[in-house]
Structures are given as C-alpha cells and as structure tokens.
Design goal:
about 375 residues; single chain; about 75% helix; mainly alpha; 19 helices
Length: about 375
Amino acid sequence: MNRATIAVVGATALVVVGAISLDRAFEAIDLDTLALLFGMMVLNANLRIAGFFDATAALMARHATSPRRLLALVVAFAGALSALFLNDTIVIVFTPLVIEVARAAGLHPVPFLVAVATAANVGSAATIVGNPQNMLIGVASGIPFTRFLAVLAPVAASGLVIVWATVAVVYRGSLAARPIGGATVTAPRLHRPLLRKSLGAAAVLLAALLAGAPPSLAAMAAAALLLVTRRLKPDRVFQEIDWALLVFFAGLFVVTAAAGATGFTDRVVGPIAGAAGGGTAGFAIAAAVLSNLVSNVPAVMLLSPVVAALGDPEHAWLTLAMATTLAGNLTLLGSVANLIVAESAARRGVTLGFVEYLKAGVPITVLSIALGVLWLS
C-alpha cells in the first residue's frame, strides 16, 4: 500500500468502527487546501508541457563554467522555483535534467542530486505555495501571502547558502576547481504559445496573492485560465495531476479529525505543548522530531491544535512552517521530495543511498533550523 491507499483505508476503517461519523468525516476534508493544491498542479503541468523547466535547465547548463558554479546554479534555481511552483514538482523535472547536465560536464551527479533535494525543500519554506504543509498552514492560519513571504523568505535564502556551502565542503573532492565549459544538454522543445499563456497565468496567480486574494481562489483562477484552451487537450493536463496526493490529503484530514474526536490528539498535544512552552526553539525542535516520525504533512495536522492554544498563533504557525519544512532534509526519508530524487536517479543508473545522503542532510538540517529559530526569536 502506498501512502494514498493507507490514508483512505485508515479513514474508512475509522468511520466503520465509529471513531468518527460519516458526516463529520466529510466535513473534516478541507476543500480550501485541496483546491489550492489542485490549482497549483494544473499550473505546473502546463509549464512542464510547455517546456519551461527544460529551458531553465538548459540555461543553467550554459552558464556552468566550474563545478562549484554549477552547484550554485542548481541550488539557486531549485530553491527559487520551489518557492513558486511546489518543491515536489521541481525535483520531478530537475532530477533527470541535473543528471544529464552533470554527466555532460564530466561530473559525478550525486552532489548535485543532494543539492536539488535539499535546496528544493529549503526554498519551498519561503511561501505558502512552496510545499503541501505550507499550503495547510496558509489556509488554516489566514496569514497573508506577503506576510508569510516577508518572515520566511530570509530563512529560505540563508538556508540556500547553507546548502551550497555544506555540499561544497562535503564533496570538495568531486567539486574541485577546474574549468568545465558550458555543459551541453538536449535542446528543450518549447511550446511557445502555451509557454506564454502559462507564464501569464503564473503572473496572475502571483499578483492575486500579493493583492491579498485567498490562495485557493488565486490558484483556481490561474488554473481556470489555462483549462480554457484550444491548444492543449484537458486530458493531457489531467494526466500530469498527482491525484494520489489529493487522495492522501483527503484521507489524512479524516484520520486527523478522528484522532481529535477519540482524544488521541489530546494525549499527543500535552507533551508537545510542554515543549512549546520553551519558546520558539522548543516548539521548532518538537515539530522537527515529529516530522521525521510521521512525515511533515501529518505533523502539521497533529500540531494544529497546539498552535491555537499558544499566546501568539501567527508566530507559532510560522515556526511550524519553518521547522517542518527544513526538517525534511534530515534523512533521505524525511520528505517526499528526497524520495523522488532518489527513485528518479536510480532509474537512470545513479545511486543516492541513505547513508550517503546523511553526510550533507544532517548538517544542512541542524544549521538551517538553528538559523530559522534565531531569526524567528
């Protein structure tokens, strides 16, 4: 069973045994969050089909004149694009491209794969639309897009510097200074009319978010603009949607509501609330540990009641977003983005192992969370 089927079977079992009523289960599903996630998937699918991400990788390859410069470009592009277009989407399209670029330049791909995974996670911390857990927090907290960006963008930017420096030190042998010339990669195939329209829809989304529109409405408006088209069959777009992730979220909403109805959450909330009493650092550490035990999205759902009980909910929400996102870099199993990178690389003959990932993952996580705590404190 994958995570989507586990969530659905678990949610159904809880209704069957009476832990939660069917009506309450339906009410627990947060359509705001699902709409936001769906809208972003439609936008990302159009950008991918139009060749936007391939063109970005080609641009990155052309400007790579040394191993460390290529590393810097990978970190910068993966981090910045993840803040706007979902970290999972970025690692899906970037992993094969980065492997191609590294091989074309005569470099070992592993350092760059670690950089893609960790930079995508760190960069996604900057915005409400950067990753699924931030979407949950953005909808639940009502924090404006601009406020979220103003507080956490500096953490993300500093974290990207940490990613580059850590990978450069850990893999200093592979990244020794030497000219590599502009790496050549397969020329991207651009669908220019669709690309222009997709970038226009992305601009509409960003303008709406900056203007204070509800994130779910802004994302659905951008998606609707792209679904009204003569150039691309809707079925092609829908094939790109991660329906399993939407199903996973729906099931998880029900499981979390049942946990609250049966008192399980109260027994978990007590110790977490005690840790949160220690301030930003205590809450961040507790959130990071829980994220690595149950994954970051369930951790956010379980910790939501704690936030409501704290004296400064906005600060707690932002701390939760920072800690659960950056905690995903600790191990190869820490986030879905990491697993996507490892699995995609394996299909192309490159092994990114659990222990190998830890070499950079642990220091990146510790340093970036420590920096985030200092900033938020």
